[in-house]
Specification:
The chain has 379 residues and is an alpha+beta fold. It folds into two domains: 193 residues, 3-Layer(bba) Sandwich (FAD/NAD(P)-binding domain); 139 residues, D-Amino Acid Oxidase, Chain A, domain 2. Helix content is 25%, strand content 26%. The protein contains seven helices and 20 strands. Strands 6-7-5-15-16-17-14-18 form an eight-stranded mixed sheet. A six-stranded mixed sheet has the order 9-2-1-13-20-19, with helices on one face. The longest helix has 24 residues. One of its GO terms (molecular function) is glycine oxidase activity. One of its GO terms (biological process) is thiamine biosynthetic process.
Length: 379
Amino acid sequence: MAFEVAVFGGGVIGLAIALELRLRGAMVQVYSQNSQAAAGRVAAGMLAPQSEGIEVGPMLDLGLRSRSLYASWTQQIEQLSGQDSGYWPCGILVPLSDAANRDRYPHPAESPGQWLSAADLRDFQPALRSDLIGGWWFPQEGQVDSRRALYPALRAAAIASGVILHEGVALQELVVTGDRLQSATTEQGPVQADAYVLATGAWSGDWLQLPVYPVKGQMFSLQAHPDLLRHVLFGEQAYIVPRRDGLIVVGATVEATAGFSPGNTAGPLQSLMAEAIALVPALADCPLVETWWGYRPATPDEWPILGQGPAENLFLATGHYRNGMLLAPITAQLLADQILDHRTDPLLHAFRYDRFSIHDSSTHQPLPALAGLSASTSQ
């Protein structure tokens, strides 16, 4: 009889795990209340462990490993779905105006960056403003068009592989006895499985007393000529992500106290637009296409929570913060290894749920109790 897994959360992380499990032979059902609100559905899709300046250590290692999986992972998704994944290894440019920031970017031996002088930078990307001191070029980094391509392709690939999706279905209760999660209940009734995965993003605190909380981000897009920008720009105050068809995605605000407040607001968007135009002046003449917002699932140390949880058959994949799109392939691989093969990669130790103190300094809530709660909003 096939091993059965229930995945709660139908965003990119939940679907990536579900697809990997199914391709390894498990029977998988995904329950999602509102996948449209998932951070991965609204992200710009940068694949930028070095450009983001992640410090040398487990988080950078996780990001580099995941980035190395992207080409084969998206190729598999495209083959299963028959759709374009939106993956584009276009490289990322980090333009700098302050020499003090030059040395904060990691350069592992397998993925060195290239420093461009001010003159080289102008030749490489003429649309940038003229007073920059130079910039780092990371040719191995890139992007994925998560909103228009990857998410729908991933969803289609999961369905094609045999994953069963239950959309618009809210998780209501988790029932634990001893060291096992015995069952879960949704608004449609009980869910029985051999293993359970909690991948509900910023809503994960509804089910476990984990320090996962929303950090709202607002973004906008512009339409430009496709030749204006051909590489992602990771600026000091904004990032600019050009798509192949000339659409330009600009992000993102970081609103840690906004909670789940919905909607776009004028002030943060005005500031974001000003930063983008200051970096690439020609953007001032580009038509505005769309504005949107989402909720990053953050933790106090800004690292995800991955692996086995407080019950032996409960597995966690949440708290990816800014890096959900980047980390989707490695999260799926490591979780599937642990769930189906009982094999725990040493790297997962740094991302355990119990790395936080018994009383987390941000939430002052005891960890890690299981919560049998009714949530008003959950993925």
